[in-house]
Amino acid sequence: MKSDRGKILILVGAPGAGKGTQAHMLEQRFGMPQISTGDILRVIAKRDSDLGREVARVQKSGKLVSDEVLAEVVRERTVLADCDHGYILDGFPRTISQAETLEVLAREQDREILAIYVRVERHELMSRLTGRRVCPNCNEIFNVHSRLPAVDGVCDNCGHGLFQRDDDHEETVARRIATWSDQTKPVYDYYRSTDRLVTVDGAKPVDQVFREIMTAVGICEAESA
């Protein structure tokens, strides 16, 4: 991935599009850290602090935390040493304001930005998210529609009980998708208008989506082997 060292790769798409999965695969293959603002905020939400309680309240409502909080989270994370050769953003930017903040950060870090839009239709997003079950012990993810555990409600990996996140209940999922459409889709238009966005079909099998992403950023199988 020599041609892309130093880049900021952004995964754009609605909740449930598979951005996190693809970001993790890119991280494993190329060593660029996956920075998931969602994961960071979930850790913060568990803290017994004013910020933790506020983040937990916002997440449960299906809304998004403020631009100021997310911008500071990203700035603090991306100055760490493992980001020296670029990084992958999952869940940021979600608004034009955040995209503008990232432009400033990219200039400070002397890095280029490339956005990858993982496109999935709404009905598929609803099925993926409302059916998702998570292991709180090892973070393995199952789905009642597409990936059942061997024993109902029990993680195949570690035997811990599975649970449904508060933000994966049907009403909350519907609000999350609507919020993304209203607030985050303009980010897609922003990067498309500046010719820094490529689109991949997120409804395809995970490995096929990954190959499309590698092609989009100019990586062939031989380079990634």
* CA-based shape: globular
Class by alpha and beta content: alpha/beta
Strand content: 5-15%
Helical fraction: 40-55%
| Sheet of most strands | 5 strands, parallel
Given as residue ranges, the uncertain stretches (5+ residues, pLDDT < 50) are 1-5
Mean pLDDT: 87
CATH superfamily caption: P-loop containing nucleotide triphosphate hydrolases
Number of strand segments = 7
Query: Number of domains in the coordinates?
Result: 1
What is the CATH topology? Rossmann fold
Notes on the protein architecture:
This protein has 225 residues and is α/β, with parallel strands linked by helices. The protein has a single domain (2-120, 183-224), classed as P-loop containing nucleotide triphosphate hydrolases (Rossmann fold, 3-Layer(aba) Sandwich), CATH 3.40.50.300. It has nine helices and seven strands; from the N terminus they run βαβαααβαβαββαβαα. The strands form two sheets. Strands 2-3-1-4-7 form a five-stranded parallel β-sheet, sandwiched between helices. Strands 5-6 form a two-stranded antiparallel sheet. α1 (19-30) packs across α8 (206-216), α4 (67-78) runs parallel beside α5 and α6 packs across α7. The longest helix has 24 residues, at 170-193. The N and C termini lie close together (11 Å). Residues 1-5 have low confidence and may be disordered.
